[in-house]
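Lab notes, practical 5.
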Amino acid sequence: DALTGVGFGGPTGGIPGALTGMCIPRHQANRYEGRIKDGEVLMFAFCDSSNQFTRATDLMNQTGAQDLSISG
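Output from the prediction step:
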């Protein structure tokens, strides 16, 4: 399991547990788990400024990203 190799899973409750530990709501975490298991990629961008946020959003949109969400 590739995600376990980078720190997801184990005692935190798998993918949903790791994501809720990052303040992602449980319903979103469960949905993301299904998409990851279907072979999709989950990507995070941590931005320190509105310029970085705009650039990250633009890049994700240009590459066909779906289901973008923002957390503060």
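Observations recorded by the TA: Residues 50-62 form the longest helix (13 residues). DSSP finds four helices and no strands in the chain.
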